[in-house]
Records
---
Amino acid sequence: MGYPDQRFDVNLSILFTELPLLERPAAAAAAGFTAVELWWPWIETPTPPQAELDALKKALDDAGTQLVGLNFYAGQLPGPDRGALSVPGTESDRFRANIEVAADFAASVGCTALNALYGNRVEGADPQVQDALALENLVLAARAADRVGAILLVETLNKPESPLYPLVSAPAAIEVVDKVNAATGLGNAKFLLDLYHLSMNGEDLSQVIKAYAAKTGHVQIADNPGRGAPGTGSLPLEQLLDELKDAGYAGRVGLEYKPGDRPSAESFDWLPASARAAH
């Protein structure tokens, strides 16, 4: 048990950001990792030119890295936005325009998990209208994910850092997952369990793991406080990941932490080099 027993991947939208996007897969590979994940890399557009998609695929292939998770278009992230799919008007339209683009790209690189960030509450918009729009868009996204053999992820964020995001508890995200699965009958909507966000919300992490491991499709970690590497805060991450494994979770664990003042490559000293490659 312990860290060497896990299947880690590196989030290239928060680590190695000192490098241009197309150099990050090789940097992750040089640090010993063979699996990576990404937020939607083109924050300005849901439909980037095919040449840019092809260049990213080539960078992943050349580095020998497997993309295991990709966000759908989520607006300005990092930045003020927390997704687009429940935001009426232009942003919802942009999310819809992105669905097949993201699914096709995932298929082209063998990525089997697509994360759909819910989006913030909008001043003046009826929350019930936003939730109905969200379900409509998530159903479309779940069908597209299913078409390419992928799961659809729904993520809980934390209230202190995302005060306008409505899914700030594990049960809130699980409720959305269940609604999407009921609407599609596909069963491919899953919970993205982020131990950092849940801890920031003050949730009982062991209890969440017990209750929802079976509905969890992906896990992400960072320590708390500070959202740094494991060992920089006080979360018992090694123990919690063992609890997840004991509860039947056999999926990947995304490293979604800030490297601090040092280069990203130096932030992995908590994890033996031999435990970094995907297995």
Note: The longest helix spans residues 127-147.
---
Amino acid sequence: MDLKQLEYFVAVAEERHFTRAAQRLNVVQSGLSQTIRALEDELGGPLFVRTTRSVALTAAGGVLLEEAHRVLDAARAARLAVTQVHGLARGRLRIGAIQSLAPFIDLPMTLGRFREAFGGIDIELRFDGSADLLDEVRGGRLDIAFTQPPAMPVAEVTTKLLVCEGLVAVCPPKHRLAGAHDVTLADLARESYVDLRADWGMRQLIDASFAKAGLDRRIGFEVNDMGMLLELAAQGLGIALVPESIAKNRRDDRHARPVACADIVEDEEPCWEIVVGYRARGDEAPSLVVQAFLDVLVRQAGVL
């Protein structure tokens, strides 16, 4: 058993899905499946119960998940400690990001932890559109970018999937879609929408999903703020499509106007993805300062 096998196992256990886990690891699904089968053979039994839609942990898998987290955390802590001993007393880390990282990644907290560990590293942060960020990494003007995955690979830039989460329809509690499951895009096309501006990555994802299905939709309100988007949907001025985590946070907010959600049928469900990109060729390792930041990110957010 090695660290790579444990990383693959944890990804499948957390995603509950081999395809999403492969996307997160940036590997082919067949290679991931083969690694998991080899690990199961080595440990003498199945770690997952597989179905056509998802996977679930067996009792043995649940035990291994707890130990795998402990081992991987220890390995990352050791690497971070060695990095601190070896240097990074001075330097600069330039980070670019899209607007919609929260609640998936707590970037301010991660930056705080990195500053605590490497106080001599100057940190620069700016927000921009997804396409521009990876170009900035390729051109050496940014060291790291948090953004949407590119439609085509960007030369000399390595990306790793951090988030893969389905969108849900947000509406008032008395709306016809409230609490519905397996809603189709064709059914959703009947509704009026509140949406983000056309230059937002999430808006582009939704537009592309409806276009692929050959469907048009009507947008009644267009905003540049996620909080306003949800408030307009809560008022019944149109439905909004947002990632599950954002919808859950709104539903759990007792001080906000209540909302309900509708789940989209799995094979039509748009998936909101966020990657971290850094400059490297092929399997080449990132720079020392970038690797140190990624180690802090993993320990803080549990991603990668």
Note: The longest helix spans residues 59-86.
